[in-house]
């Protein structure tokens, strides 16, 4: 797999229907990442949630450690670690350890916490979560710099001459990204600290239309704080399912998408049911959801990138179970075979080589055919009919 151009991966919350065996679900998640690793996907980001029944991974760090033992190449990140739930010193220590244990394949994704129910159980006010995330990330960045002991005190954590036990394995530190969904706070925090961005809003209604605007806000924030804000660290998170043909892809996902939307987002989280009469159709029209054959998916990604007004470093697909297990795994395989190379330049040389041979076939292969015919004649045997083609005239000898 050629590693240039876009990176591709998944954002694994995960989403598992209540009623499904949770132990087996976790096992399937590990199998999925192993499958992606074998197919050449670049990244997998694993979520942290503590309520609502569907997103059942509580510790992305534990999951990453297990996945790292089953894979060879794929980068593994938290998608995301909810920073207000943890002391920043411990977050930094855990990810430095993962950085060493994975030999540089660990990534830290940061967020304020997606489910208000999680924060409620821990006594954290919703209006404080984004401020707490920013304070925590600031502390983590100071610790990872390994320049001097860090002393800080806020209304929810304190550090006294704190320093890391180990320096990061990756220099100067492992990749870090902040999640951004519906508000500009995520991209502003990412710009302030000069880290990457996970644009979950790219897969939400109207979110792709705001991508360029939010990116400019992040650039302005980075400039204000003397930081670099690179598009290479920008990942766009959307929904995707690929099949051989568009009609097959629609059939694969229609029932599962509706069940997830109604059962989880509407009945469990209390969000507006379906957000429309046809959320799947609306998402397809808006480009926030890509469902179809390889050509349709290619055009959808091209359209998505146009909204960024300059490009991004990667595209992540929200791991879902809209389709059955076999079709889901095949979707990722079809994407890796027929879509991924289109954006990574891995077909350039094979295509050029084919065209060169085709354009020069008479001059190159003609003498070879003459040599083969001569070999039969020299051996006193009749030249087979299929070898009687005169390449320089295009006529058959009779």
Automatic annotation (TrEMBL):
Residues 7-303 form the Luciferase-like domain. Its EC number is 1.-.-.-. GO terms for molecular function: oxidoreductase activity. SUPFAM superfamilies: Bacterial luciferase-like (SSF51679). Coiled coil: none annotated. Keywords: Flavoprotein, Monooxygenase, Oxidoreductase. InterPro entries: Bact_Lucif_Oxidored, Luciferase-like_dom, Luciferase-like_sf. Belongs to the bacterial luciferase oxidoreductase family. PANTHER family: BLL0895 PROTEIN, LUCIFERASE-LIKE MONOOXYGENASE. This is LLM class flavin-dependent oxidoreductase. It comes from Paeniroseomonas aquatica. The lineage of its organism: Bacteria, Pseudomonadati, Pseudomonadota, Alphaproteobacteria, Acetobacterales.
């Amino acid at each position: 797999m050629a590693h240039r151009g876009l990176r591709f991966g998944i954002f694994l919350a995960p989403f598992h229907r209540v009623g499904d065996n949770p132990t087996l679900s976790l096992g399937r998640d590990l199998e999925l990442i192993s499958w992606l690793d074998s197919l050449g996907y670049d990244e997998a980001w694993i979520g942290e949630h503590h309520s609502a029944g569907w997103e059942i991974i509580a510790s992305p760090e534990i999951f990453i450690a297990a996945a790292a033992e089953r894979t060879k190449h794929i980068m593994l990140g938290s998608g995301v670690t909810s920073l207000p739930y943890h002391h920043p010193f411990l977050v930094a220590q855990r990810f430095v350890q993962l950085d060493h244990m994975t030999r540089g394949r660990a990534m830290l994704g940061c967020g304020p916490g997606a489910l208000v129910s999680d924060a409620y159980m821990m006594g954290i006010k919703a209006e404080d979560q984004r401020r707490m995330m920013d304070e925590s990330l600031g502390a983590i960045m100071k610790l990872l710099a390994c320049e001097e002991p860090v002393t800080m005190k806020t209304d929810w954590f304190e550090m006294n001459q704190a320093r890391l036990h180990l320096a990061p394995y990756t220099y100067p530190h492992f990749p870090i990204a902040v999640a951004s969904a519906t508000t500009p706070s995520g991209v502003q925090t990412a710009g302030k600290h000069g880290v990457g961005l996970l644009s979950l809003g790219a897969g939400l209604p109207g979110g792709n239309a705001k991508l360029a605007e939010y990116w400019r806000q992040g650039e302005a924030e980075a400039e204000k704080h003397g930081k670099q804000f690179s598009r290479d660290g920008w990942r766009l998170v959307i929904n995707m399912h690929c099949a051989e043909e568009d009609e097959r892809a629609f059939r694969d996902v229609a029932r599962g998408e509706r069940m997830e939307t109604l059962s989880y987002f509407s009945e469990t989280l209390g969000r507006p049911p379906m957000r429309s009469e046809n959320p799947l159709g609306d998402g397809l029209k808006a480009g926030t959801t890509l469902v179809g054959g390889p050509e349709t998916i290619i055009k959808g990604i091209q359209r998505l990138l146009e909204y960024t007004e300059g490009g991004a470093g990667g595209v992540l697909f929200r791991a879902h179970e809209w389709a059955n297990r076999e079709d889901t795994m095949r979707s990722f395989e079809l994407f890796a075979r027929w879509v991924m190379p289109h954006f990574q330049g891995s077909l350039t040389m094979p295509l050029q080589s084919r065209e060169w041979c085709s354009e020069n076939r008479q001059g190159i292969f003609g003498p070879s055919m003459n040599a083969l015919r001569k070999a039969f004649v020299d051996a006193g045997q009749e030249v087979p009919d299929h070898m009687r083609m005169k390449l320089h005239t295009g006529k058959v000898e009779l």
